[in-house]
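Hi, here's the filled form for the chain we discussed.

Project: internal
Contact: R.S.
Residues: 391
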Amino acid sequence: MSCLRRFNFLKGKVIATANTTYLDKYVESFISKNVSNAKNVTYSTAVILLVLLAASYGSFSINSKAISPDPDTIFYRIDTSIRTMGNQFWMQSLDFLRQRRAKLKKVKCYIIVDETYDSYTGKLLRKEKRHKDKLTQEEKFLLKYVHKYKPKEGDTGSYKYLVFAIVYGNTRRVLRVKALRRKERYKDFIVTTLIELKKEVNYECVLFDRGFYDGSFVEKLKKHKIPFILRAKISKTMKKEYGFYKNWKCYTDFPIGTNGEGNLILGADYTGGKRMKWAFITNLKFENWFKVRELYKKRWNIENIFKATDGIQLRAQTNNPTTRMFCVCLSFLFYNAWQAKHKKKITLLNFVMRILESFLALIIKTAENIDFFRDKLRLNLPFWDRIIETI
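And the returned structure, exactly as it came back:
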């Protein structure tokens, strides 16, 4: 193995080492303490990894049905919370920015803030609508994180996450993730995070989609001198009184609702052969206002992140928001590691598969009975024989 990576998510660190001798000793010690084929064995972390690998490779879901072995027991081993995971991810990102402070000073950095959704197909929302008086206390808690928005056909709802990402050069990296409750007011959280980021990296501006178009939010960004470009919702006033033309124009002190105002930038261009009208709010200054539209294109970087991580995310058919948060954060951790070292050499999916194959090979390497894992867990992995051949 040319390079092995051990992901220690619970400690919020990604440890890389080329010292395979040390890693082999660590794994051997770990397995001797955690792996057993005794009939009364509690599923260990090693067995948990095997089940996760089997599920992710076959595009299966982890659910809470009582089958043998019970997949949901995997997550009972994770002693953490949504807040803890979010804080650990954030601390790791701050360490990353501090270690690369000198490099980041030499390039232009952009922060992108957006929301993403994780599909939910459970029945809690239906029960809430039809039998609200029969909800248990646990179900009431779980429902705080289940949103009514349905991102895909067949969904009954979704889980919602606020994501911060940084873009510089050809590199993208997720910096922070927050699981959002229903009707949660999180605009102050965004501002606080951006203020903290300003201490670590001198970003050019922050890019927002029109879902963040709000007068009071704009005023908070201006108050704290946070440079931003925010796509505005096109109103009748913009169409009738100002219009959208090839020559982009700025209209100062444009009222945003009843509690804010900002510099409105209007213009039109041809995107994909179709004439598109654009409206933005910004506190930046440009000689050519079309530059706002050019910078805003960088916001699509976060959409690319969501698309990529959606392909490697472990699907968890559970109501537990902590389990959901774990799966989302894990996919972002894999993405960040891939961006840091391997994106030019290997695809993201192959990168993840190599990591999992390496872990599996190391676990099996010191196991007394290889067939025990395959038979006990009923694993049917296409690369199983290839892994055994490498031992």
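Let me know if anything looks off before we file it.
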